[in-house]
Amino acid sequence: MVLATDGLSKTYAGGGFFQKARPVRAADSVSVEIRKGETLGIVGESGSGKSTVARCIARLIDPSEGHVYLDGDDIARASPSRLRLLRRRVQIVFQDPYRSLNPRRSVGASIVEGPMNYGTSRADAVARARELMTLVRLDPGSLDRYPHQFSGGQRQRICIARALAMEPDLLIADEAVSALDVSVQAQVLELLDDIRQRLDLAMLFITHDLRVAAQVCDTVAVMHQGKVVEYGTAAEVFGDPQHDYTRSLFAAAPGRGFAFGGAAA
Description:
Layout (H helix, E strand, L loop, with lengths): L2 E10 L11 E7 L2 E2 L4 E5 L6 H8 L7 E6 L2 E2 L5 H8 L2 E4 L13 H11 L4 H14 L16 H13 L5 E5 L7 H18 L2 E6 L2 H7 L2 E6 L2 E7 H6 L4 H9 L3 E4 L2 E3 L1
Parallel strand pairs: 4-9, 4-10, 7-8, 8-9
Antiparallel strand pairs: 1-2, 1-3, 1-5, 5-6, 10-11, 12-13
Helix pairs in contact: 3-4, 3-5, 4-5, 5-6
């Protein structure tokens, strides 16, 4: 088991200057698992808590309660020094490819920065960056170019290469295709699935789009108001949804006849 969460919760204080503090439980006792070579999708509307869970797993924010096990190591309460060693094992690709890359740095510099910070020589980091550009289907000779010289879909591929440069055990894609055109979405989804299979990666896929989840996920957790309300294989959840909230998501999905494995227009 690459990743397992047990009772993972995140509570924010809430309130404001003129409001009584009212705690907001953004994630409430979330327990999920991901095995090597598998993709777990966390699906839900905006505000359901899915991105909060992803950020707790990546330790971009601290969980309030519960455990996050990475190959058996509980990283939920890891010290800063220990967390630095563990952090490279979990990498995240964010939603907006236009804001994820420093416009003043070449894409090559962005890709090699992480490995070099962990002791990889520049020559080895650059060689690996060239290999990764080929893996994400971009020209390895373009490492000296800058983000503005690439399209949105190409930038997201560069962000994927940057994450893979750290050789993670777990790759988190947090709404990683939602800012892209539909045709480009399909290409990036195909790429992510290909990478998962080639590298035997564990992947956590965060999305509000049921169609996207149906294409790439082995298992699915449906979140609503911070809780997982349905959890099972993609075939089970999409083929025979049990919870009213899951059914409501299907009812609201664009198009007609949406079902696991595809959708009729």
